[in-house]
């Protein structure tokens, strides 16, 4: 069968390929070689073909030498040429917990070309907490920021338009409180058009 079970618990140094290293450098990570340690993973690959993927990440955790510590990542993903579904996404870091509701997308291809107007997507971010210092590997200046942000959102989109029906952001110190909705159009263009309805900002 094409069902595979991967269960790895290790403490190794993993050097990314040169291509991956350049990609990470382009994303802002240090240019020196990147190493991952304390890898723990339990991944069920149910299906993998040229145009479909069905995977269940029951557990993924690791440490990265620049300071990134992923305590646990879980999710289920099923996707093909016409439909994709992301379920049960949870991410935990030392002071961060992100939960994402079901994200569904439908779309079409014409030959090998993606038909943008056919895209329809819905999703949400369930009540989550993000500690900024957990992200200091990306932005070093965040290392001493121990504040925690709360985050919740709901969105949907069609074609190259995305509607954010609700976005709520707060902080444990009370100095940030934001509740907005809005939309972005012409996402495939260089200068997209956007609108924000700010219900609360302090």
Task: Describe this structure in a few short sentences.
This protein is mainly beta and 202 residues long. It is 4% helix and 64% strand. The chain has one helix and 13 strands, in the order ββαβββββββββββ.
Counting helices, strands and paired strands, the structural category is mainly beta
Low-confidence stretches are 1-13
The level of helicity is under 10%
Give the N-to-C terminal Cα separation.
Answer: 56 Å
User: How many β-strand runs?
Assistant: 13
**SSE series:** EEHEEEEEEEEEEE
Quaternary organisation? single chain
What proportion strand? Answer: over 45%
Q: Number of helix segments?
A: 1
Largest sheet: 13 strands, antiparallel
User: Which value, in Å, is the CA radius of gyration?
Assistant: 19 Å
The overall average pLDDT, rounded, is 86
Characterize the overall form: globular
Set down the secondary structure blueprint.
Elements: E1 4-9, E2 14-15, H1 18-26, E3 35-49, E4 52-64, E5 69-79, E6 83-93, E7 96-100, E8 103-110, E9 113-131, E10 148-158, E11 161-171, E12 177-185, E13 193-201
Antiparallel strand pairs: 1-3, 2-3, 3-4, 4-5, 5-6, 6-7, 6-8, 7-9, 8-9, 9-10, 10-11, 11-12, 12-13
Description:
This protein has one helix at residues 18-26; strands at 4-9, 14-15, 35-49, 52-64, 69-79, 83-93, 96-100, 103-110, 113-131, 148-158, 161-171, 177-185, 193-201. Strands 1, 2, 3, 4, 5, 6, 7, 8, 9, 10, 11, 12 and 13 form a 13-stranded antiparallel β-sheet that branches. A hairpin with a 2-residue loop joins strand 3 (35-49) and strand 4. The protein is built from 1 helix and 13 strands. The longest helix is centred in the first third of the chain and has 9 residues, at 18-26. 4% of the residues lie in helices and 64% in strands. The protein is mainly β and 202 residues long. The radius of gyration is 19 Å and the shape is globular.
């Amino acid at each position: 069968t094409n069902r595979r079970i991967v269960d790895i618990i290790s403490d190794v140094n993993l050097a990314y390929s040169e291509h991956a290293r350049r990609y990470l450098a382009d994303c802002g990570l240090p240019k020196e070689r990147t190493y991952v340690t304390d890898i723990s993973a339990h991944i069920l690959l149910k299906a993998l073909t040229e145009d479909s993927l069905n995977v269940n990440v029951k557990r993924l955790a690791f440490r990265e030498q620049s300071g990134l510590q992923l305590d646990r990542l879980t999710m289920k993903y099923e996707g093909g040429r016409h439909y994709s579904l992301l379920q049960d996404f949870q991410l935990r870091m030392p002071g961060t917990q992100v939960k994402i509701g079901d994200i569904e997308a439908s779309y079409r291809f014409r030959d090998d070309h993606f038909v943008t107007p056919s895209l329809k997507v819905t999703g949400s971010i369930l009540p989550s907490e993000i500690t900024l210092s957990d992200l200091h590997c990306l932005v070093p200046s965040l290392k001493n920021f121990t504040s925690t942000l709360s985050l919740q959102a709901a969105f949907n989109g069609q074609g190259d338009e995305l509607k954010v029906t609700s976005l709520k952001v707060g902080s444990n110190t009370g100095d940030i409180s934001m509740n907005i909705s809005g939309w972005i159009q012409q996402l495939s263009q260089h200068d997209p058009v956007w609108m924000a309805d700010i219900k609360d900002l302090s």
